[in-house]
UniProtKB/TrEMBL annotation:
Domain of life: Bacteria
Name of this chain's protein: DUF222 domain-containing protein
Acidic residues: bias regions: 82-93
InterPro entries for the chain: DUF222 (IPR003870)
Region entry Disordered, spans: 82-112
Lineage summary: Bacteria, Bacillati, Actinomycetota, Actinomycetes, Pseudonocardiales
Domain DUF222: 19-155
Organism: Pseudonocardia asaccharolytica DSM 44247 = NBRC 16224
Amino acid sequence: MFTRPLPVVHRLTTQALDALDAAGPTGLRHVETIAKILAGPAAERLAPQVWAGAEEQLAAKTAVYTPSELPAYGTRLVEMLDADGPEPDDEQPPDPVNELTLTRHRDGSGGTLTGRFDDAALSDAIVTLLDAKSAPLTGDDDRPAARRLAEALAEVCG
């Protein structure tokens, strides 16, 4: 018999464990394990009757599984009972960001370009063009890749 007070929602678990107590070693760790399983997001989506049935099945398995083995069984059981899974997210994904920012240097010597392209096709087109134009001209071309890219962009914009 358990001496620690348990939540009312676990009444079925404690009743089943009391009935199984004579059959094998069950205890408070089993109850705590069942409580953790039934507090998960998938279990919270179960209808009350289904949740109570899961609690009964978990309590019955305490004669078979140790408290450390019970979560694997319990997780499979709850996931099977929650076959629909979580509600779909009805929010629309944010619009893709495709932007290019030019900041001119104050002294008029040039500027800085910063870009972000979430649209994969647009990004691929830009990258493909710049990759082709920024390839080393010869085996002796020792310009850094960043410089070759900058010069390729200037050539394309011509």
